[in-house]
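Chapter review: from sequence to fold.
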Amino acid sequence: MLSRFFSISYRFPKVGTAPLAVAAAITAAIGTLALTAPSQANETVIPTGPVVSLQFGGNGNASSPPPVLGPGYGAITNSATTAGVVSEPYWNYQIDGIQNYQAPAGSPNISTQTANGGTTNAGGILLNSTGASSGVTYSYSYTRVSGTNGNTFPSGGDQDLATEAAGVQSNGNATLSLSGITAANYDIIAYVNPMYFGSNPTLEEIGLGGTNYYLNSSNTLGAWTQSTATSSATATTGNYVEFDNLSGSSQTLTVFDNGSYYGLDGIQIIPSAVPEPAALGLMAVAGAGLLLVKRRSPSKA
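The token string follows.
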């Protein structure tokens, strides 16, 4: 962003001009840059390294615990299939989900096991989008996994991803714990849909690191649609939220039990560039400009 500042020619006032006019010129320059800067919440996600993608879903191999391992309905079992806002291959898919099993209060379902391309992931370690080990593991505590019965995506990976959701159906929040993240800076996209799509929208609330996003479901969305609302009053229709500029080897994402039946279709961990401290950079440029003008001003006799 700062390089754009230096590529724009600003004509500073002549020597002797009042300092207020100088400050106004610099403020105008900074304002121009601020107006042209993209909004972080809406900018395109561009990975700076391999992406880790995880899909949730239940199978019909058992009606109650313990689970009988196997891919869930709609599982992206072909490692070459791409899906998601950041459309990448090598999706890890849950294999320990029990379709439509409602966990009792105080005894949630726990998922830790996945496969990729038909092969179980050793030690629960997820693969990244190159097919290599990412070092990332997860534990997901939730109450139910069921079909969404309403996505209108075209046939393919995105439709598969939106087919199932694991999350809350009373009995407490669902909590996804991620460990072993090696990227220095990254974003997390959470794909969210209700179980048992109906004609009425479902209010959904997803939180991570003190930031909660709200969205209203829709059974007519045929594309990934982001919600950036941070209150229930401003919730917009959508099916994913994005947590930006994260760091650290572990994260905890919460699906809140608000009386609605909904959950995660999946998540993606996307390495991203360290954000530029734009405000500090612009202040430094402004200070440099003022200093330059001062040095050019004639000394008083």
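Two observations follow directly from the output. The first helix runs from residue 2 to 7. Residues 1-17, 25-42, 282-286, 288-294 have pLDDT under 50 and may be disordered.
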